[in-house]
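Task card 7
Instruction: Convert sequence to structure tokens.
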Amino acid sequence: MKYLPIFQELFGSDSIFIMLVGFILALFIGIRINNTRKNIIGLIFSFILYAVCELISNISPGYLITVTLLFIGTIAIGGIAGFTLSAVTAYLKKR
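Output:
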């Protein structure tokens, strides 16, 4: 059993480009929302999605499911970064 296989794969291959897709999507959605509370909810949802993908990928029921979880988890990591930046931006705009 590997610990955090999706996070390890992120820095071990070219999956950083997949993370950028999640980052750009979350940043676009977060800027369009322009509400700190909703951005934090998006951040929490992305983190929960990433954690669930990590937990299920440790069980590893099959190759196709593991690869699918890798893509979803990597996009969720980008979502975490994007919603964090969006929440900070929305907070600073309101000040």
